[in-house]
Inverse folding.
């Protein structure tokens, strides 16, 4: 089995853990790396085939993992790819097409199927955004924090934390008080990843009276 990382902190970190646990289970592991932003994986795939590596756990982002999966299929390599949450995006499938079938990855339960998230999902879809990955989790965090600020009447972190623990937060009702706060980095969020853009849209709709700064 091979474990690959993209030489980034996150990729190396998760692969370090996977490699260590495989070693504890007595598994032989071949550690390999590639450079984030790499587009061609033919040489790496050739080495893996030569070493008879049939399973690869990859710590990296969906673009590179998708390209590797597609190129492995084109080379007719007998390879099963495993990864984690960066593959929870339709952009992975846009890269791999049907070659992505059989790829394994881990992620938390998809909140899009939760009835409590129906209005958020509908709002995002109306904007042409799928609300995938961590988007809905981030939206829920914004809602919970906003309601806790309303409850505590303060931005003090300790008071907000106490308000969060005082009773469950099922939803954020905009009619319960008028919350006003500042959202910094609007222009950065617009240029950032899709999930950031989706959360920003959700926040602007959920808390329209907030002041959004560039």
């Amino acid at each position: 089995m091979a474990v690959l990382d993209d030489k980034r902190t996150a990729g190396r970190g998760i692969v370090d853990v996977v490699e260590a646990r495989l070693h504890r289970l007595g598994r032989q592991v071949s550690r390999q790396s590639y450079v984030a932003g790499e587009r061609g994986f033919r040489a790496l795939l050739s080495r893996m085939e030569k070493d008879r590596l049939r399973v690869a756990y990859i710590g990296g982002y969906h673009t590179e993992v998708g390209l590797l999966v597609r190129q492995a299929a084109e080379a007719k390599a007998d390879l099963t790819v495993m990864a984690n949450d960066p593959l929870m995006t339709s952009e992975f499938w846009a890269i791999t097409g049907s070659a992505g079938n059989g790829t394994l990855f881990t992620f938390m339960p998809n909140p899009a199927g939760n009835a409590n998230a129906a209005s958020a999902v509908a709002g995002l879809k109306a904007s042409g955004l799928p609300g995938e990955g961590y988007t809905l989790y981030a939206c829920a965090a914004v809602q919970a924090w906003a309601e806790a600020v309303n409850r505590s009447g303060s931005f003090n972190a300790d008071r907000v934390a106490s308000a969060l623990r005082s009773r469950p937060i099922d939803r954020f009702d905009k009619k319960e008080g008028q919350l006003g706060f500042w959202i910094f980095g609007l222009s950065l969020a617009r240029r950032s990843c899709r999930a950031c853009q989706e959360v920003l849209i959700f926040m602007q709709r959920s808390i329209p009276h907030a002041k959004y700064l560039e």
